[in-house]
Amino acid sequence: MRTHFDWNAYRRATVGFDRLFDFLEQGGTVADNYPPYDVEKVADDRYRITLAVAGFKRDEIEITSHQSQLTVAGRRAENDNVEGRKLLHNGIANRAFERRFQLADFVRVDSADLADGLLTIELVREVPEAMKPRKIAIGGEVPTVIEDQRNAA
């Protein structure tokens, strides 16, 4: 049994976490779990997504990054010679897939590699200089130093 939790109090107290609260309100679940994947934090500003795409070739996988959404899609080639085979058991998934990842602000795809049935996508977070925290000097007049005339002689 699921209970509904009201996130409005937290929405008012935070800035920039709207997508996180939308995800939590939807239950945080995805209906399809194919292909399985891992998300790893490699360093403070580097991340890695690894998808298990056994049986797919490089030209059958498409990676698209648009604004803050990363889409990985796999489509098997039509001439895969499946018709001539007589399978006694078909346990290897060879269906098409599309997996979407919502990227945080300033995260971009750095590279992608396919080896041993694992698709690895390297991500890097690059915050522009204008968006980084900076110290703000407090302006105003500098106090004038008045010399003591009694000690001047």
Classified by CATH, the class of the domain at 33-81 and 88-129 is Mainly Beta
Order of helices and strands: HHEEEEEEE
- Cα-based radius of gyration, to the nearest Å: 27 Å
Q: What CATH architecture of the domain at 33-81 and 88-129 would you give?
A: Sandwich
Helix tally? 2
CATH topology of the domain at 33-81 and 88-129: Immunoglobulin-like
Biggest sheet statistics = 4 strands, antiparallel
Structural class: mainly beta
Tell me the overall shape: elongated
Report mean pLDDT, rounded to a whole number.
79
Protein described:
This protein is mostly beta strands. It has a domain at 33-81 and 88-129: Immunoglobulin-like. 9% of the residues lie in helices and 32% in strands. It contains two helices and seven strands. It has helices spanning 8-13, 18-25; strands at 37-43, 46-52, 61-66, 69-74, 97-102, 107-115, 118-125. The strands form two sheets. A four-stranded antiparallel sheet has the order 1-2-7-6, with no helix packed on it. A three-stranded antiparallel sheet has the order 3-4-5, with no helix packed on it. The chain is elongated. The mean pLDDT is 79.
What is this entry, summarized?
The protein is mainly β. It is built from two helices and seven strands, in the order ααβββββββ.
Q: How would the blueprint of this fold be written?
A:
Blueprint: H1 8-13, H2 18-25, E1 37-43, E2 46-52, E3 61-66, E4 69-74, E5 97-102, E6 107-115, E7 118-125
Antiparallel strand pairs: 1-2, 2-7, 3-4, 4-5, 6-7
Task: Describe the structure using short key phrases.
single chain, 153 residues, mainly beta, Immunoglobulin-like, 4-stranded antiparallel beta sheet, 3-stranded antiparallel beta sheet, 7 strands
